[in-house]
Structures are given as C-alpha cells and as structure tokens.
Design goal:
The complex is a heterotrimer of chains A (529), B (414) and C (195). With 529 residues, chain A is mostly helical. In chain A, 69% of the residues lie in helices and 0% in strands. The longest helix of chain A has 36 residues, at 65-100. Chain B has three domains: 32-121; 130-269, Immunoglobulin-like; 282-412, Cytochrome c-like domain (Cytochrome Bc1 Complex, Chain D, domain 2, Orthogonal Bundle). Chain B has a five-stranded mixed beta sheet. Chain B is 42% helix and 14% strand.
Chain lengths: 529, 414, 195
C-alpha cells in the first residue's frame, strides 16, 4: 500500500507553517486541530481532577473552599465543553467526508471559524485562575457546572467569563452542527443513501440535530443570567417576579440532551470498532439507527429528572420517572446489537477493541445506575450525593471518553500513517480500567452512606473510601500519560507504517484510502453499489 | 441476602486490605444509614429492588460477553459468522424477549413500587399536627416551630482548629451543630422549607428526605421518626464557600422529652432576654472580652474572614488592618463610606460605632450578613473587641455590651 | 504527520460547484432559522413556564386578585374544613419584623376569610419591600383565592412604623377533597430604590 501512498502524495497541496493551521479549511486539518485541542484540554481537566482528588485524599483543607469550588466547576466545564465535545466534533470533521465519499465538508470556511472559536473559550474558562495568581479578580466560576441561580447571580467575575465562554462554545458547536448536517444531506457520494451511511455518520446526524435544538435555549438562558447579573432584570429572582427554579429547567433542557450529545457519537463509533475486530459485519444497522432517533427524541423530554428534589408535583415526578425509564429500551437495543456484532465473530484484542469492550462494561454500569436514579423517591437519597458523581462518571468517562480513546487508537494509524505502540496501548487500557474502577466504585458507597458532592472537606466516616478513590484517581490520571506518550511517538514518526486497510477486518470508504489519506480525497466521488 | 449486601461484601473483602489506619471513628458506610422514617424505609426497599435487578442484569450480560470473548477468538480458530439481523421469524421474536423483560422490569417490577413511593412521599392527606419551618441561609439553618414561639439558628460547632488540622478531629467532625433540631418521635411532622439567599438542600439520609429550599418559594416534605436518636446530615446543594460547613443534626426524642424541651426553650427565651439585659449592664475587662470574642469570631466570622483574619481577596475583606483589598464596587463603596478602607485600597480600622453597626446590620447587597438577631449584645461586644485587638490590630478599644445595646437602640428609633 | 508542502491551490476553493453551493446555502439557511427559533424558544420558556406554574401550582404560585363579583352567590361548604397555616420570611436587606397574626385558621371552602400580617420597621430609615407568596402543597395553590393581598404591590414602611397588612381570601370549594391542610408563605424581598 506504500506505493499507493507515494502515488497520492503529490496531490497533497497545502500551505505550511502557522498559517496552514490558522486559515485551513481542509476537513482533515480541522479535524486534527479539534482532536489536538481536545487532548490538551483533557489534560487540563485531568490536572483539575487530580487536584480535586488530592483535596479529598484526607479529611482536611488543602485549598480554600472557594478555590475548591472553582476547581470542580472548571473541571466539569472543561471536560464537557472543551475536551469531549471537541473530540467528537474532530472525529466528525475528519471522518464524515471520508465515510460518505465527499471531497470535504460542505462549508469549509465556517468550519474554520467553528474551530477557532474554541481556544478563546478555553482561555476564558481558565484565565480567571491565572488572573487570580496576579491578584486580579477572585478566580474562576465557582457555582458548579450547573450554574444554578441565584448562586450564579451572586458569583464573581468568573461567572461572566464562563458565560462568554458558553457563548463562544455554543457558536462553535452550532456552526459545526450546521456544517455536519449540510454535509450529510448534500455531499454523499452517488448511491450512498441515508440508510447506507456508516453508523457513525448517523449518530452524528442525530447529535447535530440535538445540538441545534438544545444549545440555543442554553444561550438564551445564560443571556438572562447575564442580564440578571448586570442589567437589573429578575428572570431568576423571586423578588422581581422571576423564579430560581426556571434556571434549573432552562439548564437541564440543555443539560440532559447534552449527555447524549457527548454519548451518541461514541455509540456510533462502537459498531465500527467491534465489527472490525470481530471480522464480522455490523449487526442490526436499522435497529441502531432507529435507536439513535429514539434516544434523541426521548432525551429532550426527560430533563426534569435532574430536579426531583426541587419540589415537583406528583404527576410531573411520575412522568419524568417513567419517561426516563423509557430511554433504557433504545439504549438496551444498542447494547444488544453490539453483543450480537461480536457474537460468533473471530475476535482479536488490539487496543481499540479493548477500549471498546471496556466501554461496554463501564458504560453499562453507568446506564444501569442511571436506571435506578430515575426513581423519583430513591433519587432523594442519590441526588447530589457521591452516588450521582460515580454514576455520571461511569456514564461520561465509561462512555464518551472510553469511546473517544478507542476511536483515537482505531483511527490513529489511518490519520498518521504510523502504527502506535501496541504494548503501551494495552498498558494504558488496563491501568485505565483498574484506576477508573478504583476511583469510582468507592464513590457509589460514599453516596449511599450520605456524602454530598461538591464539598472540600468531609466527615470522618468517609475517610477510607475517599482515600481509596484518590489512589484510584492517581492511577487513572497517570495512565493517560501513556496515551500522550504514545501519541507523541507516533507523531514523531516512530512505529511501523500503517497499511491502507490498517486493521485486518476494517471496512468502509475511509479504509480504501491510503494511510495517511491524501490532503484532498474523493475529488471524484466514489459510486456506492 | 440482597444484591446490595453481596456487592458490599465483595468490595469489602477487596477494600479491607487497603483501609487506612488513621480514622479510628470510621464506620463502614456500605449502605444507607438505618432508615427511621416510612419514606426512608420505602426508599431503601426500592433501592434494594433496583440494585438487585441491575446487579443480575450486569452479571448475566457480562457473562454472555465473557463467554463470547473467550470462545469467539481468532486465536481459538473461530470463524466469523456473517449474520447482520435476525434471520428467521423465530429469531426475531426471540431477540425481542430481552426488551420485553426490560420493559416489564422498568414499568412493573420497578415502576409499581416507585409509583407507590412517590405517592407516599407526597402524602398530605393525613394532616400533620406539627409543622417545622427550616430556613436555609449562607451558611447555617434556622429552625422555627410556629405556634410554639421557638426559633433559633443552628450552625456548625466543629472548631476551626479541627478543620485546619491544628487539633485532632472529633468523632462528629463537621457534623455537629450548636443547636440541633429537636423533634418528637412517632409523630408526623410537616417540614416546610424556605431559603434566604441561594438554593440549599436539607438532607438527612436516615430520614430519606432531601428537599431543596428555594428563595421565595415554599417547599414541603414530611418525616415521622420511629426511633429516638441523633441523626446527622448536611446541605446537599452547592451554596457557596460554606457549603461543606452547614450540617444538620436532628435530635429525635420521646414525646415527654420533647415537651420538656419546649418548656425549657420557651423559658430559655425569656431567661436569655433577662440575661442579655443583665449582661448589657455588666462591664467586662478587655481580656475577658477578647477571650469570649475569639470564640464568637471562630463560630460566626471565621468561615469568611478566615481564622487568621486575612479574609479572601475579592470577596471577604480582611480584618487585619493594613492589608490591601479589592472587591465588587458595592462592597468597596460600603467600606469606604464607613471609613474601613483607604483610598489606596488598604483595610483600616474604622470607627467603633460603624464597626458595631456593620456586625448588627450587615452590608446590604454583599455577602456580609446581619447578626442582630443571631448574636447577643455581649457576643457582638466581645467579637468587635477581639477583632480590634487581634490580627495585628492594636487599637486598644474595649467595647462593652451596653454600647452594642445603644447602637441597636439608635437604629431602631428614628 | 504528513509534511508535504505544495501550494498549487487555495485550500478554501471548495470542490463544490455553483449549484451545489446554492444547495448548501438553502439547507444552511433553514438550519440557521431553526437555531434562531430555538433561541427564541429559550426566551419563550419564561412566560410558558410561568403559565405552566399557575396552571399546575408548581412553586405554589397563585394567581392575581379575584374580582369581588366572583364571590357573589358562592356558598361555603360547611361540611368540610381546611386548615390554612401562615408563615413569614424577611429576606436579608430588610430590617423588618414580619409575622402572621394567626399561625393557622380553619376555614370552610368557599367562606371568605380575613386575616392579616403584622409588619414593623424598627430601623431608622424607610424601606421598601415586595412580598412574594407561595402555597404548599403546590396543587392547592390555584384554589387559594385572594380578594385583597399586600403581595400585589411594593410596600414602603417608614422608620418606626408598624402596619397591619390585610389579607382577604377564600379557599375555592373545588379544592380536591384530600387536601385538608395548606400553608401560605409570604416572603418580603427588599426593593432597591434608585435615588
């Protein structure tokens, strides 16, 4: 396949240096920018996580409670908006045109703007910390990523920084969502009908629709918050006829679908990986696509299950409880299809496959505990306790993060043309799996025993489990350095050259292109049978 | 044996080896604290059903996956099948079974008990004789018994020295208060909740109750405790700097003891008033005031102004004079108006009367609360004296309770 | 990473032909309109939410004043009793004392009842406040009808002044039979006067 690569090399035409990256409208460059940015922010968020677990290692105060609140808030915002979302967007940008046989994204210049809005947003989130070091302001946003009013109305300058960061990240996500939808609708290769699209493309189409539906209301919400803070309005203040609970509804109308926005693209990548390494076609293509639709639709009608303790009428509690349970069905269908895909396959266990299987197990725990959280009464105990913290880390690390890591290993040889170090990859997986479970299993028990989240110091009966959890977090955190090292090695050109197909069982248009693919692909669109 | 217990046992075995030796007081928090109210029992029951079910599902599904991982390996010579969907009608029907089971469990096995639990929790049919009003504020609770004329604040009583690791932590570290909520057992009590600033959440795990307190809008829940004892919990909604430091302690007592307590509290109100009047007449020495003041400061002021009096830049002004300070304009303006900050932005000791007034009235629009109703003249006199003679401040001012009383009187008469 | 450098074409020159471009513009335009629509929907949620609250009693919000004419011909249901409790809260920023005259009153649904709250301002300056009321349980809220209430307007209390704030209400006879006890809360919030 090297010959094919050399043959295509002379088609690679692009400017060099900084301007290449700054002005690029090439989907592969932008995809790589997104992924690189996401890895940097994943490390930033990870460092914050290590600080959190260090504070909680023992029942004592290392930071001021105020700084602690800032760290947990920025950890949440960075991980959700600056690490996971850009990673899946990056994969979309890189892969979707190749998967559907398009030469590029439909709106390349918009694509460039979409990415370059993100670094300033990240700076806005993190800068208040740095300003505080120089004695300016009182640090970053400290309200928790949920930014509940009136605490966020009361908060310092950090809240304003976060609001503007949300504007930028919102604009970025909306631009890329529009771009992805237009690309999928208009630029499929001849013969690539909707129901022939790779599953990852489908998952992103639903994700993009969700983003378009729920991000604008959040932007409206933070606009109201900004107005309440500075222009004397009373959207969230009872005194002026407003209502603090309204913020909770606005936030979770966005916040719950956001979970699926993080999740769906990785549920879309799963069948690709599972089918490749079990050398067997994807099982239940249609079932999975319909499940995506069902999840997308259900996700926007269950938001208030995050608010069971906020005082809700019985009818609303029952509705949100039963509606939430309904989500378990399409999610279970996805799991069923994944199992059926590997069933009677001929499996090998390279790193992407390990992470994909880890995804099934960890996200399985996240999903199942989510099911018990749906109960409006038991939620009185789980809500805002460490049980919840453990649950959503199983759902969001076990799901999206594991999925993104799996996708990274899976497509790394395709993107760079080099194989990564398989041994290091396996170490990375096992250390991640052990570290993650050691971090979060104790947290289930902490929550059940009554430890609330977002506290820097705790009662003595929580001491042992917290120490265990922190030790787990260090194992988990250090494991990610293996990934970074592996990535750097690959980028330095260490490692075997990757073949066109990369993996023995890999299917799909992207695996008909050389590794790395030429700068411009599919100028003549392939025809799908 | 429920699945929860099995889980607990399994993890207990694994964890026992790793348990740290230091906290001698740790109980092993594997499960919900023993439930003592109908709602908590209901919750535990539902929790057990749910957890049993998901544990079974997890184990079954994981076994299927492990089976497949073992037997469908390339290294064992497995040849890949090619099916992509159910091939026969029978297969189609069979593949629907797991989802039917899931739906059955969701809406019948779990859904029906959950339905009854929701109704039980919202039950306002049987009228509660007693009402307790819980008011959350940054960062303490106020308990009020309407009709009994009892109303008091309940704030954390763990000494700052323990929080800052200067002395050993006691058994109920961070879960003790100066004045617990006292409730009779075996009586249905309606708990209504209100907040004075941001959203708080009143959570006592043994009661199975967690309800938000919202500024402006009333919330309610109920408890019926069936066992006397001391039950501890804490605020469960992030409410700012002191969120970890607003514990809830409920002292559940027998009906007789409760009546005694009520009588005591009611007469105490009067005694306190009399004592306050007497204390106002007393003249203390500076040393006495500083000692008393340190205690008051630790309990009421140190959460924000910090034990070392340095405050937190940007939000909470230092007490120590000569320190630079910048914050939101309304805070700076209030400090400047009263002469507590130099044009160069340094904190200085302002006039005594203004100092007393700030403590009494708070500063509207800033985090500084009014202590006029929660602290006595004596306490305020002591705290102000302490503040003006510690942290490197050496004004030598001695403030007597009578001066605080005078300041109160001045604001109350036009 | 590939490091081939060749500047033969501008990367922005997309391969899409003019017809395709027009096609893209149309879909983009539609999606942009959808985005704006959902942005507007975010704001529309404010009034929607408020009417939803009024309808379901979420947050214990009650409606505005009831016209006196509505009471004409209404018969009190002597067979039933509802216990109406009262509670009061003064928010930080006001120096007032504020409490209900009665801890609770037992009323018959449909019977117009008068009570009041006592408010006094012991500070040395006039202060203005706005009372916000709510009712628990929430589903009783829309059956709690006010003919006269101090919660409709801002109230200014002069220094040293004490006042009786009248509340005239009735519990609608349509109130569900199982609701036998409701609690009414008034919370006075400070109103900042820009002078």
């Amino acid at each position: 396949m090297n010959a094919a690569h050399a043959h295509d090399a002379h088609h690679d035409e692009h400017p060099s240096g900084m301007t290449r990256w700054l002005f690029t409208t090439n989907h592969k460059d932008i995809g790589r920018l997104y992924i690189g940015f996401s890895i940097i922010m994943f490390l930033v968020g990870g460092i914050l996580a290590m600080l959190i677990r260090t504070e909680l290692l023992k029942p004592q105060l290392l930071f001021s409670p105020e700084l602690y609140n800032q760290i947990i808030t920025v950890h949440g915002l960075v991980m959700v908006f600056a690490a996971v979302m850009p990673a899946t967007t990056g994969l979309a940008n890189y892969l979707i045109p190749m998967m559907i046989g398009a030469p590029d994204m439909a709106l390349p210049r918009l694509n460039n703007w979409g990415f370059w809005l993100l670094p300033p947003a990240a700076v806005l989130l993190v800068m208040p910390f740095i300003l505080m070091l120089f004695g300016i302001g009182n640090g970053a946003i400290d309200t928790g990523w949920t930014m509940y009013a009136p605490l966020s109305v009361q908060g310092g300058l950090g809240v304003d920084f976060a609001i503007f960061a949300v504007y930028l990240m919102g604009a970025s996500s909306l631009l890329s969502s529009i771009n992805i939808i237009v690309t999928i609708f208009n630029m499929r290769a001849p013969g690539m009908t909707m129901m022939k699209m790779p599953i990852f493309v489908w998952s992103w189409l639903i994700t993009a629709f969700l983003l378009i539906a729920v991000f604008p209301p959040l932007v409206a919400g933070v606009t109201m918050l900004l107005a309440d803070r500075h222009f004397g309005t009373h959207f969230f203040n009872a005194a002026g006829g407003g209502d603090p609970v309204l913020w909770e509804h606005l936030f979770w109308f966005f916040g719950h679908p956001e979970v699926y926005i993080l999740l769906l693209p990785t549920t879309g990548i799963m069948p690709h990986i599972l089918s490749t390494f079990s050398r067997k076609p994807v099982y239940g293509y249609k079932a999975q696509v319909y499940s995506f639709w069902a999840i997308g639709v259900l996700s926007v009608v269950v938001w208030a299950h995050h608010m069971f303790t906020s005082g809700m009428p019985v009818a609303a509690q029952l509705y949100f409880m039963y509606a939430t349970m309904a989500i378990s069905i399409p999610v279970a269908i996805l799991f069923f299809c994944w199992f059926a895909t590997i069933w009677q396959g001929s499996m090998t266990f390279e790193t992407p496959m390990l992470f994909a299987l880890g995804y099934i197990v960890l996200f399985g725990v996240g999903g199942l505990t989510g099911l018990i959280l749906s109960d409006a009464v038991a939620d009185q105990q789980y809500h805002n306790s460490y049980f919840l913290v453990a649950h959503f880390h199983y759902a969001l690390f076990g799901g999206p993060v594991m999925g993104i890591i799996a996708a990274t290993y899976y497509y790394l040889p395709k993107i760079t043309g080099r194989m990564y170090n398989e041994t290091l990859g396996k170490w990375h997986f096992w250390q991640t799996l052990i570290g993650f479970n050691l971090t979060f299993i104790p947290q289930f028990f902490l929550g059940i025993a009554g430890m609330p989240r977002r506290i820097p110091d705790y009662a003595l009966q929580f001491a042992h489990l917290n120490m265990l959890s922190s030790v787990g977090a260090y194992i988990l955190g250090s494991a990610q350095l293996l990934l970074v090292y592996n990535l750097i090695q690959v980028m330095r050109g260490v490692g075997k050259k990757a073949t066109t197909q990369v993996w023995e069982g890999a299917q799909g248009l992207e695996f008909t292109l050389p590794s790395p693919p030429p700068y411009h692909t599919f100028e003549t669109q392939p025809v799908i049978q | 044996m429920s699945a929860r217990k099995v889980l607990a046992l399994l993890s207990g075995l694994g964890l026992a080896a790793l348990v740290a030796p230091d906290a001698a007081y740790a109980r092993y928090p594997w499960e919900f604290p023993t439930p003592v109210t109908p709602v908590a029992k209901e919750t535990l029951w539902v929790h057990n059903i749910f957890l049993t079910f998901i544990s079974v599902v997890f184990v079954v599904v994981l076994s299927i996956m492990l089976y497949s991982l073992f037997f469908h390996r390339k290294s064992r010579g497995a040849m890949p099948a090619t099916f992509t969907a159910p091939r026969t009608k029978l297969q189609f029907v069979l593949s629907a079974i797991p989802f039917l089971i899931l739906a059955f469990v969701d809406y019948v096995v779990m859904g029906i008990p959950a339905y009854h639990a929701v109704l039980a929790m919202a039950n306002t049919r049987a009228d509660a004789q007693m009402v307790v009003k819980v008011t959350g504020m940054q960062w303490k609770w106020q308990y009020q018994y309407p009709g009994l004329h009892i109303k008091y604040y309940s704030s954390i009583s763990t000494p700052q020295a323990q929080i800052h690791d200067q002395e050993p932590k006691n058994k109920n570290f961070l879960r003790q208060v100066n004045h617990p909520l006292v409730l009779p057992v075996n009586e249905k009590i309606r708990v209504i909740l209100m907040s004075k600033d941001v959203i708080h959440s009143w959570w006592v795990p043994a009661f199975g109750v967690k309800e938000d307190s919202i500024p402006g809008f009333l919330r309610e829940t109920w408890v019926k405790i069936d066992k006397p004892g001391v039950y501890r919990g804490q605020c469960a909604e992030l409410c700012g700097v002191g969120h970890a430091f607003m514990p809830i302690v409920v002292d559940a007592v027998s009906d007789d003891q409760f009546k005694q307590w009520v009588a005591q509290e009611q007469s105490r109100e009067q005694t306190v008033r009399a004592q306050q009047a007497a204390a106002t007449a007393v003249t203390y020495t500076k040393a006495q005031l500083v000692t008393m003041g340190q205690k008051v400061f630790t309990a009421n002021c140190a959460a924000c102004h910090q034990a070392n009096g340095m405050g937190i830049p940007g939000t909470f002004p230092p007490i120590a004079s000569g320190q630079p300070f910048s914050a939101a304009p309304n805070m700076i303006a209030a400090l400047r108006k009263r002469g507590f900050i130099t044009p160069g932005g340094k904190i200085v000791e302002g006039p005594v009367v203004d100092h007393i007034n700030i403590v009494l009235q708070g500063i509207a629009g800033t985090p500084m609360p009014a202590f006029s109703s929660s602290l006595s003249n004596e306490d305020i006199a002591a705290a102000v004296t302490f503040e003006r003679n510690d942290f490197g401040n050496h004004t030598g001012d001695v403030i007597q309770p009578a001066e605080v009383q005078a300041a109160r009187a001045a604001t109350q008469k036009p | 990473m590939d490091r081939h450098v060749d500047s033969g074409r501008t990367p922005s020159a997309g391969p899409a032909g003019p017809t395709e471009g027009g096609h893209h513009r149309r879909v983009t335009f539609i999606l942009a309109v959808v985005v704006l629509g959902f942005f507007g929907f975010g704001f529309a949620l404010v009034p929607l939410y408020n009417s939803f609250c009024k309808l379901t009693g979420l947050n214990g919000k009650t409606g505005g004043p009831v016209e006196a004419s509505a009471v004409v011909g209404m018969k009190a249901d002597r067979a039933r009793e509802v216990k109406v409790g009262f509670t009061s809260t003064v928010m930080p920023g006001l120096n007032w004392r504020f409490k209900p005259l009665h801890n609770y009153i037992v009323v018959h649904p449909g019977a117009v009842t008068r009570t009041s709250y006592l408010v006094s301002n012991p500070s040395n300056h006039a202060e203005t406040g706005q009372a916000i009321m709510s009712v628990v349980p929430g589903r009783a809220a829309r059956y709690f009808k006010k003919l006269e209430c101090f919660c409709f307007h801002q109230e200014t209390i002069k220094a040293g002044e004490s006042r009786n704030m009248r509340l005239v209400f009735f519990v609608s006879p349509h109130i569900p039979k199982d609701v036998r006890s409701i609690i009414v809360s008034y919370a006075f919030f400070p109103v900042k006067k820009h002078t």
